[in-house]
Amino acid sequence: MALLEVDDLHVSFQTPDGVVEAVRGLSFEVDDGQTLAIVGESGSGKSVATQTITGLTRGATVSGRARFKGTDLLHCSTEQLRQIRGAGIGMIFQDPLSSLHPYYRVGWQIVEMIRAHDRTVTKAQARRRAVELLGLVGIPAPENRVDDYPHQFSGGMRQRVMIAMAMALNPALLIADEPTTALDVTVQEQVLSVMGRLQEEFGTAIVLITHDLGIVAELSDEVVVMYAGTAMERASRRTIFYEHHHPYTEGLLGSLPRTGGTRERLTPIPGLPPSLIGLPDACPFAPRCGYAWSRCHEQAPPLSPVYSDPHHLSACWLPGQRDERAQARRRTQTGSGVRAA
Ligand SMILES: Nc1ncnc2c1ncn2[C@@H]1O[C@H](COP(=O)(O)OP(=O)(O)OP(=O)(O)O)[C@@H](O)[C@H]1O
Ligand code: SF4
Ligand SMILES: [Mg+2]
Which atom of ligand 1 is nearest to 94's Cα? Predict the structure, then answer.
């Protein structure tokens, strides 16, 4: 059994304009100690999916299952979920100030976090642990900094404090939602290396949400490529980078910022993601896909194994076999259509 098993997750919001289907049948698994990256453009449902799993989505209609160590997080009590959040699953968000209280010293916040889950830990013990954690994430002179307020730390340091807090109860899983997007490149590297080091030391599994495929290349084992609320492709990192099947993955890789030197974008994917209200039964990527043909506009392709490989799933009508696929792509681009599926 995997540590986290998300199965057919649907999340929708009732809005004055209609029902927004933010997550549509998302499934993935995370094993102990593994890093799963969730990538996709803005609005693809990455945050809604992970926040729903941890019970942080308000006012949504939710269905499916999300089993963490066998407990279905979507159907457990608020108290059970509160216990699991923190002790079982730690969370880091893009903006640490939204999670750190501005009026309390960071050490106090870590102490409270520890004691909220285990009242048998004394304040002195929890404070020692807070100092130790701040040291572990690379805060210099942690015994002094423990009494500082969040605003006294730089952006990168605050993100490290968040990591310390998320790791305070030694969770089996860390969910990091764009943890370094707001930071400059050098600080990003430092924060990511702290996460990597802690993962090695404690064997923590990580769900890493990011726009940045450079980060995916560096840290992930498995990758879920999300588009319009659902997975377009799921595979190992190697497969995603070198043997991907889905045109959207190809598009994301084509728009990868150059690493080192300039950060200019290569070819961006043309067009915009679709509205999530009243999506037709069609491939959601069809309006932007250079290989689309009639079938793509008439029926949504299911996420299914590519060339019978159960570890490589793709939601695209293009053939699995590489040569056939290349031929099919040539045919669509010359306008003669595709017959193979
Ligand atoms: N409370 C809500 N009510 C209505 N729609 C919502 C609500 N929360 C999120 N959405 C919509 O759900 C979709 C998915 O949002 P989500 O925040 O998960 O995207 P994301 O992939 O995390 O994007 P980003 O990369 O910008 O963080 C978006 O279209 C968003 O507008
Ligand atoms: S199903 Fe068709 S439109 Fe969708 S990604 Fe594949 S080729 Fe493109
Ligand atoms: Mg998000």
Answer: 27
The 8-class DSSP code of residue 104 comes to S
pTM as predicted:
0.93
Ligand 2: does its nearest atom lie under 6 Å from the Cβ of 247? yes
Q: Read off the pLDDT band of 335 (50, 70, 90).
A: low
Amino acid at 256: L
For residues 111-133, one letter each, b for 16 or more C-beta atoms within 10 angstroms of the residue's C-beta and e for the rest, the string is: bbbbeebeeeeeeeebbebbbeb
Closest ligand to the CA of 49: 1
| CATH H superfamily, domain 1-88+169-341 | P-loop containing nucleotide triphosphate hydrolases (3.40.50.300)
Ligand 2 centre from 286 Cα, in Å? 5
pLDDT digits over 304-331, tens only? 999 989 999 999 999 988 888 888 878 7
Could you tell me if 147 and 107 are in contact, meaning their C-beta atoms sit under 8 angstroms apart?
yes
- Of 150, 156, 53, whose CA–CA distance to 110 is shortest? 150
Looking at the DSSP bridge assignments, the partners of residue 251 are none
